[in-house]
Amino acid sequence: MKKNFCKIVSIAALLAFGQTAIAQQTYELTLDTKKVGAPIQSTMYGLFFEDINFGADGGLYAELVKNRSFDFPQSLMGWYTFGKVEVKKDNSPFDKNPNYLVLSNPGHAHKHTGIENEGFRGIGFVKDATYRFSVWAKKEKTTEDQKIRIEFINSKNNIIGTEELSINSTDWQKHQVIVTAKETEEKGRLRVFLVSKGSIAVDHVSLFPTDTYKGRENGLRKDLAQALTDIHPGIFRFPGGCIVEGTDLDTRYDWKKTIGPVENRPVNENRWHYTFTNRFFPDYYQSYGLGFYEYFLLSEDMGAEPLPVLSCGLACQFQNEDEHAHVPVSNLAPYIQDALDLIEFANGPITSKWGKVRADMGHPAPFNLKYIGIGNEQWGPEYVDHLAPFVKEMRAKYPNIKVIGSSGPSADGKAFDYLWPEMKRLKVDLVDEHYYKEPDWFFNNASRYDNYDRKGPAVFAGEYASHDHPTKKQNNFLSALSEAAFMTGLERNADIVHMCTYAPLFAHIDAWQWCPDMIWFDNLKMMKTPNYYVQQLYAHNKGTNTMTLLWPDKKAVTGQENLYASAVYDKDQNCYIVKVANTGTESKNIKVTLTGTKKKTTFTVGDCVVMQNNNLKAVNTLDTPLSITPTKATATMDGNILNIQTQGQSFGVYKIKL
Ligand code: AHR
After folding, report:
1. What is the distance in angstroms between the CA of the first residue and the CA of the last residue of the chain?
2. What is the mean pLDDT of residues 451-468?
3. Is 377 considered catalytic here?
């Protein structure tokens, strides 16, 4: 262990413990207030979203019906039918989702026709909450008006909500009715009965809670969207992740398929449905109901800069060794055009082709897009060759848009070492780094960026999470503490690290493929992990400028004596913010001396919070979501000295107000 710190045995801190006296050591650090460092980007802490773990359909996207348009390859997946039900496609109202159903008289007074949807591992209903049921429908070959009954069914097969809807037209029309749930149920179902004696056609059968985030009809699940907003993210990456690339190019994320009327956004196979055979989800498809328009809206609502990542014409390289799986560079033009068109969709005037599409969807004002990523976890010369023409065209048409390139799937190794100089050569603005590593890696890499090249692109830590393998990668306190310790290094190097986003974001407790994840949920509840709170503490206490916080020997605090620390100045709040992770088991006294201050300056302690747990394996669960949360901490100010007593296994944030 290095002895490059100042350790003092404090008499005042001698603790009587039985007959033994334990000396609590004091560690001295210095914060030079004269050296206000680099600006911290508003984008520094953000969010990464991918439709993995049922994160969009079945998660953030509040639609409760799975396969609402009957256009999964098995057209009735997610549905049970009874009576006389036929799948048809000859007269669909939606050319990109051609299937629909015809429900007809079963031919016997005591028989019934109808359909029942299982939702996403059930449908969550909340007592007294209201739900908007909607359906595109028409009556068939009859002059008599037709009627359907909508029923909410609980897990005991009882009806816990019902309403009727008349279908009076022989033309396709949207019908809707509000239904109230009489009981709370986590694993409910939606049943639609044909009540009348004739025949009707139905398509796009949909059910949303009326109480969505911001009250939007094609809206987002309120608790989940609010949890994202509450982080105060500065940047919002979307739509992934590997989903950008697809298992093959056919299943890549094509943003143009995700805009316009939701009914006519074609269903796509979700690449995560078969990625892990031990976590197999053959019913995982993307409705694109949460598409690029909804993404830009959410970014705006949260005050985060959008950061879309688009396909570079390479299908997932892990899954495609055959070079023919990819688009040859000579045929990249439509992919490059897609990227340019996305910028026009976000920023173009309403007189432009794609700006008009945005305006027609309800947002005439531009979304003010500033960043775009090209390619996800790509590697090798084929990536560089694919990226180069994107950069060239982007610079020519949109010189102010910042372009993000990839450093491959790992934060070290051959692909990484090859790509960084190539990214520098291509003059991308930021390089996306991914690290899913053990907690020890995070502890050992707190100084990763201290000696990074300052002359090239900035860093976007675009996907990272601490994976505690012995606990099957749980979101435990150890993982959160190791991320907190590591992030002192991101903060200290904010001159070069401009963005970071934990990944993945969401996981449905019954339908996940990947863990750990930042927020877990079922059909009713949500749980913020300790990792969520670490991200939130950094984002809420971002500051505006880096400061140097040093041991007396002028070294940064990067794990010596199990301490990790960083500091920022916040010019808007006129305060310093000190962050300390104590990863040892013992509590420690820390004195932070503020040097270079004017004699008359008085400092006071502002809000201080801490996350602490004696059990590194402790977790939050859906039933005990608040076991590990930040709590109020104390610290004292003695002139220009901040006194902190950090508990063992803790991460604290301390404010010093001027
Ligand atoms: O975050 C989950 C996956 O991890 C992402 O889709 C991919 O980019 C990475 O390998």
Report:
1. 36
2. 97
3. yes
Of 377, 422, 483, 491, the active-site residue reads 377
Residue 16 has what pLDDT? 39
Residue 335 — very low, low, confident or very high, per pLDDT cuts 50/70/90? very high
CB-CB contact of 218 with 289 (8 Å): yes
pTM as predicted: 0.96
Q: What are phi and psi of 507, to 5 degrees?
A: -150, 130
Contact 372, 403 (CB under 8 A): yes
273 CA distance to ligand 1 centroid (A)?
14
- Helix then strand count (H, E) for the chain reads 9, 38
Burial of 514 (0-12, 13-18, 19+ CB in 10 A): buried
How far apart (Å, rounded) are the C-alpha atoms in residues 384 and 393?
15
CA of 119 relative to ligand 1 center, distance in Å: 26
**Does residue 324 have a pLDDT over 90?**
no
Backbone angles phi, psi at 395, to 5 degrees: -60, -40
- The protein residue whose alpha carbon is closest to atom 4 in ligand 1 is 241
Mean pLDDT of the region 644-653: 97
pLDDT digits (tens, 9 = 90+) for 137-164: 999 977 789 999 999 999 999 999 999 9
Q: Tell me 163's DSSP state.
A: E
Q: What are the phi and psi torsion angles at 344 (to 5°)?
A: -70, -40
Share the mean pLDDT of the chain. Answer: 95
Residue 23, pLDDT score: 52
The CB of 50 under 6 Å from ligand 1? The reply is: yes
Nearest by Cα to 85 from 174, 199, 166, 168 = 199
For residue 389 and ligand 1, the question of a CB distance below 6 A is answered with no
256 CA → ligand 1 middle, Å: 22
